[in-house]
Amino acid sequence: MDVLILGVLAASVVGLVALAERWSAPLRAAVEIDLAPSALPGYTLLSLSRGFAAYLLSLAFTLVVGTAAARSRAAERVLIPLLDVGQGIPVLGFLPGLVLGMVALFPRTNVGLELACIVMIFTGQVWNMAFSFYGSLKGVPAELYEVSRLHRFSRWKTFRTVELPSAVIGLVWNSMMSMAGGWFFLTVNEAFTLGGRDFRLPGIGSYMAVAIERGNVRAMLWAIVAMVAMIVAVDQLLWRPLVVWSQRFRSEERSGEPAPKSWVVELVGRSRLVRRLRRALRRRRARGGDEAAAGAAIHPATPGSGAARAGLRLLAAVALLAVSGAALWGGYEIALLLARVRAAEWGTLGAALGATTLRTAGALAASVLWTVPVGVLLGRSPAWSRRLQPVVQILASFPAPMLYPLVTGALLWARVPFTVVAAVLMVLGAQWYVLFNVLAGASAIPGDLCEAADVYAVTGVSRWRTLYLPAVFPYLVTGLVTAAGGAWNASIVAETITYRGGELSTFGLGSLITQATHEGNFPLLAAGVLTMSLALVLLNRTVWRRMYRLAATRFALNR
Amino acid sequence: MASASGSAPPPAPLASVSGVRKQFRDEEGHERLVLADVDFEVRRGEVVAVLGPSGCGKSTLLRILIGLVAPTAGTVSANGEPLEGIHPGAAVVFQNFALFPWLSVEDNVRVGLNGRDVSDADAARRVKEALVKVGLTGHERAMPKELSGGMKQRVGIARALVGGPELLCMDEPFSALDVMTAELLRAEVYRLWSDGGTGLSSVLLITHLIEEAVYLGDRIVVLGANPGTVRREIPNTLPHPREYRHPEFLRMVERVHEVVTGVHLPEEEEAPAPAVTVPGRPAAGPFVPVPAARVGEILGLLEILADRGGEMDLFELDAMTEWDFGRTIAVVKAAELLDLVDTPKNRVILTETGQAFVAAAPDEKPVLFRRRLLTLGLFATLVRELAREPDAAIRGDRMRDSLAERLPSEAIEPLFETIVGWGRFAQLLDYDARADEVGLFSGRQRDGE
């Protein structure tokens, strides 16, 4: 066991060095991708490192922005709506601008392209993390802040002892979700065409993209295997242990549900080396604590000086000005771009919006039809739901675009028209969120309600009507909101796909955006992305908000 | 109510179980024996109260009786026939009401008519009647969350009565309510049963409150815990309506108290453990579980006794504390196990050790407590086993598993918490909840080494 732990440490050092070499490689617009399976582990690790780099970026962003929004009214008023919009809009639409900008910044090395890819992954990860962190900070009991002020905690100490612990559980969960969400557009982020130019980075996403382009089914299958292996490994080696670790920050007693477990944690816990280390650390901390306490008694910390506070306020004002300035300038630029969109193109955009709306609605309805019964039936059996939840989680983490060619092949073979196939592709990844939530909802139904239904012979249809459907409704809404956002975003890669070397396309907002990207038609691209963003924000404000309210007032289970 | 008497053989009981055993697997995967060889029946025309401390399996017994839960072994009958599915004549009132939060009061009550062949008009009439009976007229369209606890339970009772059941099962029906509301509802339940307007034949009441059992029960069945077994049956012939302050009532309560005490605090049979032990070579007493009492509660008990001349009546003590009787008994039992008190009959007497304990300075108390703990087989064994471990520590899960193996009918988590609590106070054990590691107490002395 101890040898294993040391080995892992050594391996990560070697890995980091190798990665640094890769990054500074000279810029080649399109790297040749080797389709041999033996090249896959290397590609997978490269993609993984991008995912982690993006995650670190997300984490930093979350900590800074979340804290700012929770601490300052002014920042809150600006940042929260921004986050809300950011969460809803199709980030893929910003890829072209980002890539061109980054490549211009680093004309000689691959760094620009790498950074663009990482930022794209980042935009798929960051939103829910930031929201969760902000929410946790807002939920910190006022008494704890009062205690930290009474005892003159420094800002850093308040963050470490008050804020971070109350946010950790939510942050770990959302990190897990975010990491998964970040993979979604991997095939596109690592390989895409822009105005006739090919951009490619070595990675599992570009491997898949090339395999799809060449119609190499064997290579596709290998890529899928590698992706699943990566997701499972990250889940087992990183997230599970983190989830277990985060449980120590739970404030309330756990009620009945079994504590999360991780074999990695158990294994490490059994290691004698680790146990010794931990004990030594604890002893040191106990002594250090005494000294610190003695120190505090002699030199009471000075309260933050007025000058520093004024400086901070000035900094915040400058930052606010800068952000508003950038927003104004951006708005002006976009207005200029949009002015070049012809009236006929606006008409097409409207029609495309309608087509994609219909496709999303139909696809979501279909996914509800199968996930609700399945989720309830499985969720009612504790054994099954325990066994299935990790599986569904992995299915949800898997980047669905990697499966598009295979699913398309099967559906076209069954003579399904591509316009319907596109709808299926759009919910291919998103439907798992619905299933996941329904499963959770069904397993949260209180036992006495089920017993009451048993005693009073509430069976068959009336059991679904009086018990199951209302009980899972709030969970269903939560799942649908996530799924709808995912489906809209997926339309960009689902309505136009590469298939057997050729291209399949159906009319819709997503295919319009993809087409504009390929052709380098930036006015149309901007108009398309803007249309989709507005539509999504509008949907959130009307349909979903109303559903949430209904769920909270009519169907909440807290009694 | 209608009591069947005469020359004919007595009619079959409404519901009965015989030789019932129930084993559960808890979340940690430990098998736990909840009920062992239970024979029990609900006869026609009676109110029977099942009395026992929490965790004795009395709610499980109710669920087995009406077919909500299948027993591991034994037979279940309804009206003399083997029970299949849910008992046809039974209705249940749940502890936490179990109302559907998204249905109105009216629709919640209508659930009680589910699957019955009644017309809409007929159903509406019966729902209305049921609501009148429980005094909820005018609340038809209210949603459960608008109602107080007492009103919610009235809806629960209306839902149970609307189908005209023969057997009304109540699982701790008043324990989620405040004292006043509970008293009121108890009286109303009795009235509903006795005035015959509901068609009810029998009521089964599950409770942990002695007064409640004496107030409603014509027959009181006392369950013992770990595993749950029927220990005693006490007929209660007090005339109705019963009054809580009536001398007869109080005498009956005292009698039941005594029976419960006898069940849970039996006179000492085993030889007392040796008083002095050499640490490191503890005497091996029997490996028996310790009652789930907190150290603070035990110390509090000793203080109370010391303030009252070192001797008190058990019921007086119970009345003083705000615990339910099961809790009082657990604390007394713990103190007795540690030889800090003695309980001849229903007296609780401070022993010499107990007196020394009260007189000891705060920093001496842990030392005395540690000495007492090492006389217990459970602690002596655990300490010996820990000392054999390389770091004098093991994972908490391993200790839980080994406890579960040796004490199969014990609820492991509370026991583990008690052991840790006692061990910490005695500076005998150390538990790091973050690492889930139990070790021998090392204290600060070791840091200096």
> Number of domains in the coordinates of chain B?
2
CATH topology of the largest domain in chain A: the name is MetI-like fold
The first-level CATH class name of the largest domain in chain B: Alpha Beta
Sheet with the most strands: spatial strand order of chain A: 1-2
CATH superfamily of the largest domain in chain A: MetI-like
Question: Could you give the order of the helices and strands of chain A?
Answer: HHHHHHHHEEHHHHHHHHHHHHEEHH
Give the strand order of the largest sheet of chain B, numbering strands 1, 2, ... along the chain: 6-7-8-3-9-10
Largest interface (CB < 8 Å): A-B, 34 and 39 residues
CA-CA gap between termini of chain B? 77 Å
**What is the CATH-assigned architecture of the largest domain in chain A?**
Orthogonal Bundle
Mean pLDDT of chain A, to the nearest integer, reads 79
Contiguous uncertain segments of 5+ residues of chain A: 289-304
Distance between the termini of chain A: 49 Å
Rg of chain A computed from alpha carbons, rounded to a whole number of angstroms? 26 Å
How would you describe what is shown here?
The complex is a heterodimer of chains A (559) and B (449). Chain A is mostly helical and 559 residues long. Chain A has 3 domains: 44-273, Orthogonal Bundle (MetI-like fold); 307-338; 340-553, MetI-like fold. Chain A has helices at residues 2-23, 40-71, 73-88, 95-105, 111-138, 142-150, 155-182, 186-190, 204-214, 217-246, 263-270, 272-298, 306-339, 343-380, 382-397, 404-413, 418-428, 431-443, 447-455, 460-494, 509-519, 522-553; strands at 191-194, 197-200, 496-499, 502-505. In chain A, strands 1-2 form a two-stranded antiparallel ribbon. Chain A has a two-stranded antiparallel sheet with strand order 3-4. Chain A is globular. Chain A starts with a helix and ends in a 6-residue tail after the last helix. By secondary structure, chain B is α/β, with parallel strands linked by helices. Chain B has 2 domains: 15-262, P-loop containing nucleotide triphosphate hydrolases (Rossmann fold, 3-Layer(aba) Sandwich), CATH 3.40.50; 295-440, Arc Repressor Mutant, subunit A (Orthogonal Bundle), CATH 1.10.10. The A-B interface holds A 248, 256-258, 269-270, 272, 275, 278-279, 283, 286-287, 446, 448-449, 451-459, 462, 466-467, 470, 554-557, 559 and B 27-28, 63, 66, 68, 86, 90-92, 94-103, 111-116, 144-145, 159, 163, 390-391, 395, 433-437, 444, 447.
